[in-house]
Design brief:
single chain; globular; two-stranded antiparallel ribbon
Length: 299
């Protein structure tokens, strides 16, 4: 009984202490009142204003349906375009969808190439004597992003971020997906030669092969540094991964590697007509883009 009484008294005292600490005493009226909330400082207000003004000057995100073209400078737009979710139906029949994408592809890619050439100087200059890790492909010289004719990268390095922003000469503005309404993976030519099932009906990759990683890239294991490139110069696939890695990695790692190589149907790479490839296919795997745990430049 005494223990229960002590517990009740302790509980009451705790509640009283909590209540009294949340009030302050008004010196003039001697009346308790709630403590005022801390007012935001000028710095806080400036930070919030910075967040609120991030969309200032941006255009409303364009309304568009599946397959509709979007501006190459989509980063100048803000807002939403409908719901994240939608039904897996094409805007027309399969034949209409196929014709729309295939008929405009050549002309569209000419526009993409012109835009990319306006952003980058793909001059093909190599760094003499420097090869990628697989020792099969040279590394290109850079930077290749274009600047205004009267500005050099040395000039840029001497400017403040504010000056660069005000002059609108930052050379690495975002690169949008050429068709944002469909989006999804776009694989480079080197990958498509080995995997023609991933060739899209609507567009091709927009970077020259010289500026993309070698295919297939080298693969190194941190647990077997003494072996160097364990890929044997091959693309690691669902068909060949087991004999290459048997005895080199743990059972758990072998299972994980298998899952990285297992293709999965996606929104636009699948067996249905809601796809962006001419023929039905199994989908894509993690290593479709991150070939040999590296990258092939897909976006």
């Amino acid at each position: 009984m005494k223990r229960q009484l002590i517990f009740v008294l302790a509980f009451i005292l705790g509640v009283v202490a909590t209540i009294t600490t949340s009030f302050s005493l008004d010196e003039e009226t001697n009346v308790q009142k709630p403590k005022p909330e801390t007012s935001p400082t000028n710095n806080d207000l400036e930070d919030m204003a910075g967040v609120w003004s991030m969309t200032e000057g941006l255009k409303d995100y364009p309304k568009a349906g599946k397959g509709d073209r979007t501006p190459f400078d989509i980063w100048k737009y803000a807002g939403k375009n409908g719901s994240t979710f939608g039904a897996p139906f094409l805007p027309g029949t399969w034949e209409e969808w196929k014709s729309m994408n295939m008929d405009r592809k050549d002309g569209f890619m000419r526009e993409v190439d012109e835009y990319m050439a306006s952003r980058f100087d793909f001059n093909g200059e190599e760094i003499e004597g420097v090869l990628m890790s697989g020792l099969r492909k040279p590394v290109m010289k850079g930077p290749i992003a274009r600047l205004p004719e009267n500005i050099s990268y040395s000039d840029l390095s001497n400017m403040t971020p504010k000056e660069i922003k005000e002059a609108d000469i930052f050379p690495y503005k975002p690169l949008a997906h050429p068709i944002h309404t469909t989006a999804h993976m776009v694989f480079p030519d080197s990958w498509n030669v080995a995997h023609p099932e991933h060739i899209r009906m609507d567009m091709d990759h927009d970077f020259p092969d010289e500026y993309l990683p070698e295919f297939p890239p080298a693969m190194f294991l941190t647990t077997h540094k003494e072996l160097g490139d364990v890929s044997q110069g091959k693309e690691i696939t669902f068909e060949n991964y087991y004999p290459i890695f048997d005895g080199l990695i743990t059972p758990e790692q072998m299972e994980g590697l298998k899952e990285l190589l297992r293709p999965t149907p996606t929104t636009w790479f699948n067996q249905t007509t809601h796809r962006i490839t001419e023929e039905p296919m199994n989908g894509v795997a993690c290593f479709s883009c991150h070939v040999n745990g590296h990258t092939n430049g897909a976006f």
